[in-house]
Amino acid sequence: MQHLIKTSDFTKDEILNIYDDAKMFLDMESSEVLKGKLIVTLFFENSTRTRSAFEIAAKRLGAEVVSLDVGTSSRSKGETIFDTVMNINAMGPDAIIIRHSDCGLPGSLVDYVDCPVINAGDGKNAHPTQALLDLFTIMEHFDGETQGKRIAIVGDVKTSRVAGSNMKLLPRFGIDVCFVAPECFKAETDEFKQYDNISKVIDNIDIVMSLRTQLERHHEVYFQSLNEYAKDYCITKETFGNRDLLLLHPGPVNRNVDISDEMLLDPRCKVLRQVKNGVAVRMAVLKKLVLQ
């Protein structure tokens, strides 16, 4: 049985096959590929975009979706997450989609279930479907020619599970990754080049991925306000100038902190395209794992 806990769970060929299906699903027409199947979503962290994308993806494929309200679940009565998942598994779902604040938790559940587990984000560790839709959007923009492309991931890299998954996935497809962040937000790795200002790399890249500043994940106060951070790291028209660049963001966007209002309307910004692609890619992932 195959699960999706991290992007390396899929080979390059499997990812390309998923993208072939995703291209077909981009019309957002409903299908009955998963008719009669039951998908359970289990989100222990707040989520609008990822949760709704998974649920819409499942329903577009004809599956039934049960979204459990973990705030009123048996966990509030002292039940462990492992017991919760084993009880759900006993009810015979065809896949369980889980988001949790603990790094590694989704992967620890695979021995307790008889169906695929899909990681919808675990702490600051990984967010595999976000990385898959990001790469899909990049490949779509560059007509599949990703070899030698260069991306700067800008912002709170240290706590970003999106950055964590993309730094592992994108190089597999020939994309050179670097990070732009203040010292306090830099990635804890020596594998990639890191800069403190985007001006140092803007003329040598093809893609900018801005990240949300996740102050809730930090235990120290590094900036007095988001506006202070934005002075150096908000992506604006002045940042891009007339350069032919692709702008991405996993959402939700802190307007005028991550990306300016004006830049969000710029045709080079593909944030909403990522959202649409995210449904199609998740449809393809569900089809692959549920019908394996």
TrEMBL record:
EC numbers listed for it are 2.1.3.2
List the InterPro entries.
Asp/Orn_carbamoyltranf_P-bd, Asp/Orn_carbamoylTrfase, Asp/Orn_carbamoylTrfase_sf, Asp_carbamoyltransf, Asp_carbamoyltransf_Asp/Orn-bd
Q: Which reaction does it catalyse?
A: carbamoyl phosphate + L-aspartate = N-carbamoyl-L-aspartate + phosphate + H(+)
Keyword Transferase in record: yes
- Report domain Aspartate/ornithine carbamoyltransferase Asp/Orn-binding positions: 147-287
A GO molecular function held by the record: aspartate carbamoyltransferase activity
Q: Name one GO cellular component term.
A: cytosol
Q: Where does carbamoyl phosphate bind?
A: 49-50, 99, 127, 130, 251-252
Q: Which residues bind L-aspartate?
A: 77, 161, 212
Q: What is annotated about its quaternary structure and interactions?
A: Heterododecamer (2C3:3R2) of six catalytic PyrB chains organized as two trimers (C3), and six regulatory PyrI chains organized as three dimers (R2).
Could you tell me which PANTHER family the record lists for this protein?
ASPARTATE CARBAMOYLTRANSFERASE, ORNITHINE CARBAMOYLTRANSFERASE, MITOCHONDRIAL
What's this protein's function?
A: Catalyzes the condensation of carbamoyl phosphate and aspartate to form carbamoyl aspartate and inorganic phosphate, the committed step in the de novo pyrimidine nucleotide biosynthesis pathway.
Query: Mind telling me what this protein is named?
Result: Aspartate carbamoyltransferase
Originating organism: Halarcobacter anaerophilus
